[in-house]
Each structure stands twice: as structure tokens, then as C-alpha cells.
Amino acid sequence: MNQKPRISLPIREGTHSRQAHCDLPEGTYERELGREGFFGPVSHMHHRHPPTAWTSFKGPLQPHAFDLNKMNTQMSSPWQLKPFLYNNDTHLRFWTLTQSMNHLVRNSDSDELLFIHQGKGDLYCDYGHLTLTDGDYVVIPRGTAWRLETTSTMILLMIENRDGCYHLPDKGVAGYNAIYDPAALNYPKINTQFIEQQNENSCEVHVKRLDQVTRITYPFNPLDAIGWHGTNTVVSLNWRDIRPITSHRYHLPPSVHTTFVGKAFVVCTFCPRPIESDPGALKVPFYHNNDDFDEVLFYHQGNFFSRDHIKAGMITFHPCGFPHGPHPNALKKSQTTPATFTNEVAVMVDTRQPLHITDAARSVEILEYPNSWRTSTEESQ
After folding, report:
1. Going by fewer Cβ within 10 Å, which terminus of the chain is more open, N or C?
2. The pLDDT of residue 92 is above 90
3. 373 — pLDDT class (breaks 50, 70, 90)
């Protein structure tokens, strides 16, 4: 990322806008051709027709949507679940936990990022106790022993960082406190709840290493720390503490909403924010290729303003290699009766290496999703 353009001077040819995403030539549709996930060389083309106005989509490369609500994810341990999307850098799982765990787990393959889609509970780990609620991200370093006690059924998106630590994003000129102040991060406490769960009862730790599970039994609860110090720990962040960078005159790229950075992928959060109010500014995500990254969007809650027929608990997956962007109805509404505020919450995972779809995801795929842009041809006439 942050690579310098191969050609430093922008070239202008034909009819074009003065700036990206603003004041487009009348009757045209802008498409961004970008490299390195919005950080590298980029050009903007102006087309007579929407770049997504295809009439058919046949072959292995196509947009996908999955309804994870229909997938069998109710397990007592996350290691019983196969990923629904994966590559060498990350595995994505969807987990439903209906009752408190009676054992500990430890991931010795990866750092883990949990996103609490629904429910409430308590995390007990090597570092102490942490109360969790819907909308929380939880970063769990590799090798940490942990378990969840449920207050209500918990549904979680799990994002493994297979070969590296999670980092906070580089916030550049916006400054250290932009997007979210690191002071908003929570960490486990050696508190009364943590001390009271310590006992001399037999306890199993299910360790995942090379995607195989080993069970280690102790004659006591291994979460028996009385204190610790250092810089390696579990942290949590709720999306409600994220304060998006916005511009009323320019639709900012998804990269500005980066929340955590993994090895060869990023995790972004789309939170409620004001919609661009400048008359000439695009008010929905721009058509783009993003030719070096696969894009995954998990829809948590709200009204997903650039998508039709998408509901909470669903995933869309757009591999790199074809243009994607707003659905026709969303684009038309943004031009005729634009909203003033978004109310969506979604988690985006952009991966540098191609993702593979598992049978679990195929079983809940919405097969007509590639055809959901078809009306763009008719509406553009």
C-alpha cells in the first residue's frame, strides 16, 4: 500500500470531470479503476452506460450474496465451524452461541477478531474479564485462552488474521485521535467477576493449531492470573464509538473507514453518517473495479443505502475482476430524492489475495444476486 503512482502527472482525455466523484458530465457514469485498495494509482472513466448494466453473468467470476442467517452455525465451540470464505491470510466464520461455554479455547494459528452481531455476554480470558454487547469488536491475540458466558444468545462474525497481529490503521494527516480515539478501546480487568470464576475444578482448553484441535485438561481453571503488565492484550471497540471522517462535498473511499489492519487485508466499518450535501457530489458509493482486492461486506443493521434486497446477517462478496457499485434503485434515489443521513452499520473485509467459497456458503447463496443490477440498462435510457 501507499505505493507511488507509476505516472505522477494525471492525464486528461476526452470529456471528463474536473475532480473525481464530483460534477460528472451530464448523462455519464463514473468508474474508478484503482490499484492497491484505494491507495495506489487510479483513473476515473466516464461511461455512457452504468458499468454494472450487464444482461448476463456466466462463469466462475461473479458477484455473490449469502444469507448467513440460514446457515447452521449453532456450536458450543468456534473450532467446530468451518470457514465460509477463506484464503491463506484470513478465515471468516459465523458462529451462534446459545449458552455459556463450558471449556476454554485457544487459537494458536491466528489472531482472532470477533464482531458481536447479536447478543450480550462476558469474555473471560488470560488477561481478565470484559463485558460484551452487540456491535463490539474484540481483538484476541494468538495464543490467548478465552471463553464466553452468554447473557443472551450471541451471534458472531469471526475474522482470523492467519499470519500477523492486528494493528490500528494509519490515520495520516487526520491525526492520532481520528475515526476513533484509542482511549475508547476497552481491555480486560482483573476484577471481582474474574477472581470469582477461578476455582479448582477440572477444565479443558481446546487448542487450534494447523486447523486441528487438541484438548488439554487441567485440574484447575487456567484463568487464574492475579495481575499482569505489558502491551499484548485483548481489546474491544464498539462501532458506536467510531466517529467517521466525512465530507459534505466529496464521497470518501471505503479506506477512510478502516478500523483494523491485518496481514494482507483490512477491516472497515460503515457507520451512520451525514450524506454528502454538495449538489455536484456523488451520494452513493462510486462504481469501481478495485483490481487488487476482493471485497466482502457483512450487513449488521440498518438500511443499506447502496443495496436492494439486502438484510441484516447477509454477506456480499465481490471478487476483483469486474466493476461493482450501487444498485439501480439506490442510484436513482440518490439522484432524485437523496437522503441526508445513512443509518447502516456494516463490516467490510478487503483481502489482497483471492478468497475461496466453501460448501457452507454455497448452501445459503442467493443465486439471483448477479442479476440484481439488470434494470440499470432500462433505467439509464
Report:
1. C
2. yes
3. confident
